[in-house]
Amino acid sequence: MTRQSLLLPLLFLLTAAALPAQPTTNVPAGAPRLERRGQVLQMVVDGKPFLMLAGELNNSSSSSLRYMQPEWAQLAALGLNTVLTPVSWELVEPEEGRYDFTLVDGLLQQARREHLHLVLLWLAAWKNGMSSYPPVWVKQDPARFPRVMLNGAVVEVLSPMAPATAEADGRALAALTAHLKTTDTEHTVLMLQVENEVGILGASRDHSPAAERAFAGPVPAELLRHLAAHRGMLNAELRALWEGNGARTSGTWTEVFGDPADTTRADEIFMAWQYARYVQTVAARAKGAYALPLYVNAWLGNEKEKPGDFPSGGPKPRVMDVWKAAGSSMDLYSPDLYSPDVRGWCALYHRPENALFIPETNGGAQAAANVFFAVGEHAALGFSPFAIDAGLHAEAADAAAGNLPSMEAMVRGRAELSTSYKLLAAMMPELLAAEEKGEIHGFVLDKTHSSFDFAMGDLIAHVSLDEIFGNRAQSGYGLILATGPNAFLGAGKGFRVSFTAGGGTQVGLASVEEGTYEEGKWTPGRRLNGDEDDQGRAWRFDQRGAKAEKVVLYRTK
Ligand code: DGJ
Question: What does the DSSP 8-state code read for residue 16?
Fold first, then answer.
């Protein structure tokens, strides 16, 4: 049981003043933007808040309009409203200075037919730490576009300490955003991801002569000034490292950020600064042409891994403040969340000034559950399982190969995700309104996390695994939100809720009603009582499948 969630609203109020100002230039009317509404940042499109119920395509799918043609309708049928779609530098600028947006235009057109929004992934200087996506004219000119050195060898990875590369990359992305500004008047594109999972793999830092010189030199004063000015809000791990060395305001990277027990820590911070400077430069160019929201994503690795096992310098929580010190063109820092520790990582990425957006994560049944937690507990702007189109092909291939059990599991997982997405889409107006007021909580329950308490107004909501006549659910998930002082809307499965109030007040169930949304309007189904509300003791969501219910409470002294 946790009471951490009781503290979050207070943290928001205390730190609201620190939120970044939203850009107001280069934003045509109605264009997508991130806006602070009440206690949260929300994506606002055409003046309305919007929750991105998304999925990310496989890396190569969107390189072919023909390949994508049949996909969109299936993605829409699954319940997605947004598709994360790669756009690569090599295809946009095959020859230097000659831009080709035919593919981009085609993707937008295809998506629009299914009323889908897009988040474009700018695969450019780096993807997964490597440099396979730059155009050939960049790859074959290492004198102009220098590379990093690892273990004594120059490798096929572009250096972030390269103004010419940042200039070329930024110019290309700015050409894309300028093109979108004039052609995407329907606001199909909501946001852009700049690069993908940047960082050095295979070593904790670059060892090229330029990197060696910079690493032996002083930490830039602007970085240290930023740390000092934001000391109270820094990521705890970064703050401990910096303060452990005396919170120095000058010195070399090792003097300021060295950890005698782990030399990779200073290396990681050094690389974070180099990548951040590059990516902020590219982002500033893009924003100058059209101020769409921008984010950068991180490969997280696991707790046993060191920088270099995961891309060293990528925007993990412990270097997020280093990235922020390097510029303010990036709106969001986002986790590619494949770790089982969904709670831990969401808590680290959801900061008062950094809304949670999950661009990549596991799909199927796990996604069906986790989306409720991310949206309900962390006001996620969006949620996006990776390889969302893989299932469609794999199902067909499995079926053809007669591989029925794995096909069935995949179909079941996708159906479960689809149910979650469709429920959340139907609830979107109530859900986003509750987020603004901070009157919403989301959860995933299992044997080890079988109950949570949430403060909701002057009540405490006790959420636990559902149980009836000794039959206890193994798992459950959902969210609950307040629609009035004694009224709540909930969705999910396998959980139950009871409410308590202080001061000797007793709280009972006045009514529990299940329902569906028909053309956006709540349409009541059964009135739930008896076994279905445990004889008035609990607002129950059984294990059968996620659904929506409304409860009204009464109070007596
Ligand atoms: C994370 C990357 O960001 C994706 O593009 C893709 O390569 C996946 N890993 C593969 O699982």
Answer: G
Residue to mutate (ligand 1; options 128, 201, 295; most atoms within 8 A of CB): 128
- Ligand 1 center–CA 361 separation, angstroms: 10
Query: Residue 289 to residues 27, 94, 112: CA-CA distances in angstroms?
Result: 9, 21, 23
Residue 198 CB coordination number (10 Å): 28
Ligand 1 proximity of 361 Cβ (cutoff 6 Å): no
Is any atom of ligand 1 closer than 6 Å to the C-beta of 362? no
Which amino acid appears at position 495 of this protein?
Answer: F
Nearest to 2 by CA among 443, 431, 459: 443
369 closest CA partner among 407, 423, 333, 317: 423
Query: Does residue 6 have a pLDDT over 50?
Result: no
Query: Does 451 sit in the ligand 1 pocket, CB within 6 Å?
Result: no
* pLDDT tens-digit readout, 472-485: 999 999 999 999 99
Q: How many other C-beta atoms are found inside a 10 Å radius of the C-beta of residue 249?
A: 12
Phi, psi of 328 (to 5 degrees): -125, 20
Read off the pLDDT band of 546 (50, 70, 90). very high
Cα 58 to ligand 1 centre (Å): 8
The predicted structure's pLDDT at residue 397 = 63
Phi, psi of 140 (to 5 degrees): -90, 15
Ligand 1 centre distance from Cα of residue 56 (Å):
10
**Residue nearest atom 2 of ligand 1, based on CA coordinates:** 128
- In this structure, which residue's CA is closest to atom 11 in ligand 1? 386
If you average pLDDT over every residue of the chain, what do you get? Answer: 94
Q: What is the pLDDT of residue 547?
A: 98
Whether 58 lines ligand 1, by a CB cut-off of 6 Å, is no
Burial 208-243, CB ≥16 within 10 A → b, else e:
beebeebbeeebeeebbebbeeeeeebbeebbebbe
Q: How confident is the model over 142-164, as pLDDT tens digits?
A: 999 999 999 999 999 999 999 99
Half-sphere exposure for 131 (CA within 13 Å, toward CB): 24
